[in-house]
Amino acid sequence: MVPPAAPVIEPATGPAPAELVIEDITVGDGAEAQPGGVVDVHYHGVEFDTNKVFDSSFQRGESVKFPLARLIPGWQEGIPGMKVGGRRKLTVPPELAYGPAGGGHQLSGKTLVFVIDLLGTK
């Protein structure tokens, strides 16, 4: 089976949002992700300012299973309510990602954009 191609994330225009932005690209019709649950996802992440890819399970060719509680706050808030089979775009400000600049993570201080395909949930 050929892994799905990574989604194209168009370069951002305008200033980065101060709040989490949740946009459904495709609404799924399967089970709904719950707060604190486990999700099986494909995701593609870029920096808001540069549109540079920093991580992509699509590019690795393998989905990833995560307990939501272990993920960045933007995912903890942005994935619940999503249904299996859906694709959602999350624009995550630094406070809900890796914290303010100088926080010790290479993505600290950056607004991040993710496209997430929900493949399964428990």
UniProtKB/TrEMBL annotation:
Q: One GO MF term, please?
A: peptidyl-prolyl cis-trans isomerase activity
The family note in this entry says: Belongs to the FKBP-type PPIase family.
Sorted UniProt keywords: Isomerase, Rotamase
Indicate the segments forming the PPIase FKBP-type domain, all copies: 36-122
The name this protein goes by in its record: Peptidyl-prolyl cis-trans isomerase
Q: Which reaction does it catalyse?
A: [protein]-peptidylproline (omega=180) = [protein]-peptidylproline (omega=0)
Task: Please indicate if the UniProt record lists Kinase as a keyword.
Answer: no
Looking at the UniProt entry, the stretches that span the membrane are none
Q: Which EC number applies?
A: 5.2.1.8
User: What span is annotated as the signal peptide, if there is one?
Assistant: none
Q: What class of enzyme is it?
A: isomerase
Q: Which domain of life is it from?
A: Bacteria
